[in-house]
Amino acid sequence: MKNRKKILFFCCAVLLFSSHIVLAWETMDTDEIKSGMKGYGRTVFSGKQIESFDIEVLGVLKNWEARNDMILIKMTGGPLEKTGIIAGMSGSPVYINDKLVGAVSHGWSYSKDAIAGVTPIKAMMDVLEIDSRNRNSSHTGNDNVWSTSLNRQDPDIVARLESYGLLHEDEMFENTNSRQPFILDLVPIQTPLIVSGFDHQSLTRLSPLFGKIGRFSLHSSSGEDGEPADLTNFMPGSAVAVEIIRGDLSASAIGTVTYRDGNDILAFGHPIIQIGNTDLPMATAEVHTILASQDTSTKMASPGKIIGRITQDRRSAIAGKIGEYTRMIPCQAEIRGSLNVTYNFEVVHDRILTPLLMQMAIENALLATEKTVGDKSMSLELNIGITGREEPVRIENEYFDSGSSWFPIYNVIEPIAMLLNNEFKTAEIESIKLVANISEQNNIASIDNIRVSNKWVSPGDEVFLDIRLRPYTRDYTSIPVKIKIPDDVAPGSSIQVIVCDAMNSKMLEMATAPGHFSPSSFEQLIDHFEDGERNDNIIVKIRLNRKGLTYMGEDFPSLPNSFLSIMSLSNQSGVTPLWSEMVKQIPTDWLINGKQTITLFVNNES
Questions:
Q1: d(CA 218, CA 322)
Q2: Which pLDDT score is estimated for 142?
Q3: To 10 degrees, what angle do helices 410-420 and 353-369 make?
Q4: Which alpha helices (DSSP H) does 380-433 contain, by range?
């Protein structure tokens, strides 16, 4: 039995200490780290093979952020002398005396030396604790620059940084009693966003949330098919991918695993976006080559097998679980225009990321098949499947755009964002399908004038309107409309007849009945989208004051006088006077623009 224990101990020691192949069971705190200490790091420079590089500690920056320090190291070995810091190294574990001290996470652009900031492992471990407690992050801040007084740091560290040309004095700060504060342009190492199927213009319009992510085009495909992934060698130093879109369009953030304990992993040493609790697919990754650059060298990699999910995206690290999987939203964008193209892809289900990624995908589909400058008319049909609802949310409308912004896409993104972020219930989107019909024409018609058969009317009368339209570059056309005066209109009152487009109609309704735009239930929110005015309709409004009120988005006409008096004097919000509107929609072949108004007078006779 004793011999068996000796053999087992010997095998573990060989595995643990030979050739830097270490799963660090012990960690080292920043208080134990001194300038001049040497160690090594682990990362992938090519393929999936984990390689070592050497490190030397330059010093420890105290209170880099609240409660946390930053370890400064110089890296050598492998391709680092040629490339400097490499985007995609974020998360590369660093060891001293075979103890894990943290992850390579920060660096300088245009630095010829591979000098990096290391996020201490203690700060990263806190993210696993957050994940286990499922609590929200309470600290946010500016990652871009760090400033402090020179006399608050170890002079040796300051001297080393000055020798490498990595700090400069803050000229905007004047202090005659002490040395000038210095500024370190020490920022999170860029996370490569490896994409395929995307147009350059659509990538440049990404949300500022993606500002810290470098964007690199590389044809890649997810390796979901075939045998399950072999996770034996998925350990600290391995490349890891966080997929946010996959299919005909794909995008993955690439980084490095720092720590693994069973199925729990930590990576990156800084956030992707710092979104907090999240649910993103986690995959293995393969590094194809390193693109050397004077600015920032980059690992060109592609995702492999899906092996789990990322559950936390925090300031100090991302955390994930192997063997737990997330469901992505199946999406389809069918573009019918100069070319007929259908894109099938999946996006992550996230209240912040999903709308942004859908905008990125749809704009890309349009830019890849249609012109970007000049007149464009389009009809959009959007179907959103929601768990627990038999019928999908269906939104249809017509739009015109004369610029390169593709602004109508907002009308697709808005309902997705509002459904995911609504205050009434958690909405789980099952599918998204968009059909866009594009034509290179200006089919706008302006409302030029309206005429009525008579301006003095009686209750119950029929009045004929003649609406004159002016289509773009075409002759005027007239549309006759018959309207009926309400039977209960008050003698001696006036009636306003408004002929307008959908946008003006919405603005009028927001002014007179704002409660209609403040839904009080999930179904009201859906009705708000599905029942929206179409842009190719002429809208005729007959407006007059009525007895009643609007409360919490609902109209209550013909209320008893006693109840009306009580509610009118109510000390709560959400109660507004009721404007009676008779609305008539007249479909046309044009996108309607403009507004015209005429007033009718009711005879004094009963």
A1: 26
A2: 38
A3: 160
A4: 410-420
pLDDT tens sequence across 314-345? 989 999 999 888 889 999 999 888 778 899 99
Q: Any bridge partners for residue 518, and if so which?
A: none
pLDDT tens digits, one per residue of 15-63: 444 444 445 468 999 899 999 999 999 999 999 999 999 999 999 888 7
Per the model's pLDDT, the better-predicted residue between 493 and 549 turns out to be 493
Q: What average pLDDT does range 137-163 have in this prediction?
A: 50
For residue 379, which amino acid is it? S
Q: Give the distance, in angstroms, between the CA of residue 547 and the centroid of all CA atoms in the same chain.
A: 46
DSSP annotation string for 17-36: HGGG-----SB--GGG--TT
> Which tokens in the block code for residue 430?
């099952």
Distances (CA, A) of 62 to 118, 168, 337: 12, 18, 59
Beta strand 429-439 with 329-336 is parallel
Joined together, the tokens standing for residue 234 give: 């998925």
Identity of residue 231: L
Q: Which residues of 121-231 form beta strands (DSSP E)?
A: 146-148, 168-169, 182-184, 187-188, 191-196, 213-217
Residues near 411 by Cβ (< 8 Å), separated by ≥ 6? Answer: 380, 395, 397, 399
**pTM of the entire structure?**
0.75
Q: Which residues of 21-36 are buried (b: 16+ CB within 10 A; e: fewer)?
A: ebebeebbebeebeee
Q: Which domains does the chain have, with CATH numbers?
A: 20-184 (2.40.10.10), 189-322 (2.40.10), 329-439 (no CATH), 444-602 (no CATH)
Residues 386 and 367: their CA atoms lie apart, in Å, by 28
Residue 367 confidence (pLDDT) above 90: no
For residues 291 and 301, the answer to whether their CB atoms sit within 8 Å is no
DSSP assignment of 369-388 equals HS-SSS-EEEEEEEEEEETT
C-alpha to C-alpha distance for 285 and 222, rounded to whole angstroms: 9
Considering only 147-151, 200-204, 563-567, 575-579, which range has the smallest mean pLDDT? Answer: 147-151
Look up residue 565 and give its two tokens.
Answer: 């008096």
* Beta strand residue intervals within 314-443, DSSP E: 318-322, 329-336, 340-347, 376-386, 393-401, 429-439
> Model confidence over 474-519: pLDDT tens digits?
889 999 999 888 887 778 888 889 999 999 988 887 776 666 677 8
Q: Is it the case that residue 208 has pLDDT exceeding 70?
A: no
Give dist(CA 529, CA 135) in Å, integer. Answer: 33
> How much is the pLDDT for 10?
42
Locus of tokens 């919405």? 506
CB of 213 within 8 A of CB of 295? no
* Distance in angstroms (rounded) separating the CA atoms of residues 347 and 384: 14
